[in-house]
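Technical appendix A lists one of the benchmark inputs used to test multi-chain prediction within the project. The record comprises two sequence entries:
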Amino acid sequence: MPLVFAGVCSHAPGITGRAHLADPEIRDEFYSHYHRLRGALEAAKPDALVVVGAEHFANFFFDNMPAYCVGMADFYEGPIEDEEWLGIERQRIPGAPDLSKRLIARVMDDCDVAYAQEWKFDHGISVPLHFLTPRYDLPVVPVNINCQEPPLTPLHRTWAFGRALRKACDAMPERIAIVGTGGISHWPCTPDSGTVNEAWDRDFLDKFVNNRKDELLAYKDEDVYREAGHGGFEIRTFIAIAAATEGATGDLWFYAPIPIFAVGCTVATMTVQ
Amino acid sequence: MSLYYVQKLLYQLNRDPRVRERFEADPESVMGEYELTDEELEAIRKPDIGLLFVLGVNGQLLMHYAAMHRYPWADYIQAMRDGVSEYGKVREGLYAMLED
């Protein structure tokens, strides 16, 4: 069954944990687009949701850091963060172990990936799920791309991975939706937290929704670090979704820097052809 | 410098409630299981969030250690700024990646 849905959205602990500190008008407009994304996702009637995220040392650490990892667990738990701090109650989220296993095997035709039968979600996946599957009734296949500290997977490899993931999804009998979640420019958890390079973000999002592969792959990590911060390394999650929808374009539903959320808040969909 | 082990301790405190319980009951014993310098031990013990930032701890680990010590968000950000004022720029790790 061909992929039934593709989209991207932001994650950040502040989106839920510091909601009360944000300008209510812009916050609620952002939330309304998250809800709209949930509606579009549900309308596609997926059997499972693949979430391409960039976790933050909840599972993967410098002792054995995979460039790519795909979950293969019966269930996932999260968020690992303090529930009150994040504003999300800890949940057990259903996995899709059999589907995961078949997806991983197909992806491995083209790319080497790690897999994990145990995985604790942090805000990187828990925040999107809080909005997109608030009843936690849709089986999830988490995918992680290391975007935290170099050495990082090169962008052309991210493209190859996104393409392999799409090929694998299309080969499955299940109806699969895919959502990428990352920040664009941001400097999370540092003294520069709250800074957002809006012009850089808008330029990136223009390349993303128009799926201009060559321009997306031309970013260099050192430039990204200087202009978009270490959080900008998470463009890999967007690039994987662009690759999974290669040749198609998308719609940017919402973008606005919300400083207390420490990220340019984004919701977009990509057409699935 | 043993940034790897400082970060490993904070990583395990974040994700493993049993390590956190042991740490809260007897921090010295848990810290003794890691290869840490006196400066690192003191920074973790105090906690000196600003010094941990300057030592190079990734904020994705550090913010949870600050939250464990009940730092409100603004105080966490200020502690890192104070650390840079007191101890100078970040010495290694991600935030020193363009220093060489």
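The mean pLDDT of chain B is 95. Helices of chain B lie at 3-15, 17-25, 27-31, 38-45, 49-55, 59-68, 73-87. Comparable benchmark entries are summarised in Table A2.
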